[in-house]
Design goal:
Elements lengths: L11 E2 L2 E2 L51 H7 L3 E3 L5 E9 L6 E9 L7 E3 L2 E14 L5 E13 L12 E9 L2 E11 L5 E10 L6 E2 L3 E7 L9 E4 L4 E3 L5 E9 L5 E8 L5 E9 L5 E9 H4 L2 E9 L5 E9 L9 H7 L6 H8 L6 H12 L9 H16 L11 H9 L4 E7 L4 E10 L4 E7 L6 E3 L1 H16 L1
Parallel strand pairs: 15-21
Antiparallel strand pairs: 1-2, 1-9, 3-4, 4-5, 5-9, 6-7, 7-8, 7-10, 10-11, 12-16, 13-14, 13-16, 16-19, 17-18, 17-20, 20-21, 22-23, 23-24, 24-25
């Protein structure tokens, strides 16, 4: 293994180096994960996991979302690994100082909660190892290899449960042009948790009058020549947050370009329609002309997009995915789709106001809604929405089988709106095999008992009319918290 590539990756927190102990990014860490508990049950009661028609939920909180971004990322060609050590990554290509090699940029983002932290003085410390191997296609021979040991320090135990992927690792690896199999693994040094994947990578030859890959970044400073390393913090998930981020930043290089080279940039939506157009003039360069370009995400709204950059007078065109989401981990939805899913979170008045907002003002309106309903304003994540979408995902698993999404069933909507009940009692006699015909859910904080009845012979549970009224009253109280 080439020692030049050992231990010299770039593990960063978004906005600063890890070793700075996050003086400027401490506020960007997230609150602790979700706890799930049920109260004591009577001898005839059952926990939510064992009540009739309820599927056990053994997945870790937060691993599944109503609209899981991981599926969207995979479809766009990003590197995705799920729990327990989950990460999202990307691969890009830049020119090097040699015509016989291309710089392959491998970047990944992972959350604090994916690692095991332990006290170190007044801090909390975790460490992980990243290994990257490039094998010639159809061969076991290793062409390039990286082994990097990284550490992360945070100021308190609370930050160790952060679920936003703020830890950024990025590495530039010189690789000859060609087709390879890339093996990528991430190992938590203090636990058996690991994530690994294999991907086919076609490394292009990046030469004169050509463009690099489009690299989504959080920050960047163009490099002056091909023998130096670019200074940027990559955005591996290529995601901007609607209402929080006004722009998405892109880094792009051109090589040995003619005088006044012009690059056209377009943003395409899912229907391949141009929703944004831009262009930039690059001066003549015998080596590298680099640019950092900002695209307004407030103008285009949430969704899945493709950035296309073309060099005038050249067939060279490069593409990259770009996502505009409603928040870390919430998923990627349309504006109208998001409002429909908030029916048990926001008040009818709030939803009507958001729905009536002109398109050009939606980003500001969503930011204001976020601010008004965020229970922990010191973090960038909306813990209330995070927990709400976790409950939707859990309800879809628990209450499947009634001919609709689980969160839209009567039991699902109660669970999503009010959370897990403190106690469940089921009217059955398991000794005689009589099928349950009713079950009641008790919520101590709301001082309410909600009763569900089932159609005989069918596993379909409906709130009784009186319980429907009780639920609406409890829902109004829940929206105020």
């Amino acid at each position: 293994m080439d020692s030049r590539f050992r231990g010299n990756g770039f593990p960063r927190f978004r906005g600063g180096d890890v070793e700075l102990l996050m003086r400027t990014t401490l506020a960007s860490l997230l609150a602790a994960g979700i706890a799930f508990a049920t109260g004591a049950c009577s001898s005839r009661g059952h926990t939510l996991d064992t009540a009739p028609g309820v599927a056990p939920d053994s997945s870790r909180p937060g691993d599944i979302r109503d609209v899981d971004p991981r599926g969207v990322y995979r479809a766009a060609g990003l590197l995705v690994h799920g729990a327990p050590l989950g990460f999202v990554g990307n691969v890009g290509f830049l020119g090097s100082g040699s015509p016989d090699s291309t710089l392959v940029l491998v970047s990944i983002a992972l959350a604090n909660r994916a690692l095991e932290f332990r006290p170190e003085g007044t801090l909390q410390r975790a460490s992980y190892t990243v290994e990257i191997d490039f094998h010639a296609k159809g061969s076991d021979s290793t062409v390039a290899s990286v082994l990097s040991h990284e550490s992360v320090r945070v100021a308190s135990a609370r930050e160790t449960s952060a679920s936003e992927p703020n830890i950024i690792f990025e590495k530039l690896v010189p690789v000859p042009p060609g087709e390879y199999t890339m093996l990528l693994s991430v190992q938590d040094d203090r636990s058996p948790e690991a994530g690994s994947l294999r991907d086919s990578v076609m490394v292009p030859r990046v030469g004169a009058r050509s463009l690099s890959s489009i690299v989504p970044v959080y920050s960047a400073a163009p490099r002056a020549n091909a023998d130096s390393s670019p200074s940027f913090i990559a955005n591996p998930s290529a995601t901007a947050v609607f209402g929080r981020d006004s722009v998405a930043k892109l880094y792009l290089e051109g090589y040995a370009l003619p005088d006044s080279a012009r690059i056209s940039i377009a943003l395409l939506d899912d229907a391949n329609e141009r929703v944004l157009e831009d262009s930039v003039m690059l001066g003549k360069s015998d080596s590298i002309a680099a640019v950092v370009r900002e695209l307004s995400v407030a103008r285009v709204g949430p969704g899945r997009f493709t950035v296309v950059a073309s060099l005038a007078g050249s067939p060279d065109t490069v593409r990259a995915p770009l996502f505009v989401s409603f928040g870390p981990g919430i998923g990627i939805l349309s504006f109208d789709g998001m409002l429909q899913r908030l029916r048990y979170f926001a008040t009818p008045e709030q939803l009507r106001a958001l729905g009536a907002t002109p398109r050009a003002e939606r980003a500001a309106a969503w930011a204001q809604f976020w601010k008004e309903t965020d229970p922990v304003s010191s973090t960038p994540e909306h813990e209330g929405l995070r927990d709400y979408f976790d409950r939707i995902a859990s309800a879809n698993r628990r209450f499947a089988g009634e001919g609709m999404d689980g969160w839209l069933t009567d039991r699902g909507k109660v669970y999503v709106a009010l959370g897990a009940p403190d106690r469940i009692q089921v009217d059955d006699d398991r000794g005689t095999g009589v099928r349950a015909s009713s079950q009641s859910w008790d919520y101590i904080d709301y001082d309410v008992r909600l009763v569900f009845v089932s159609d005989l012979g069918f596993d379909r549970w409906r709130l009784t009319p009186s319980s429907e009224l009780d639920f609406e009253r409890a829902l109004q109280r829940a929206r105020l918290h």
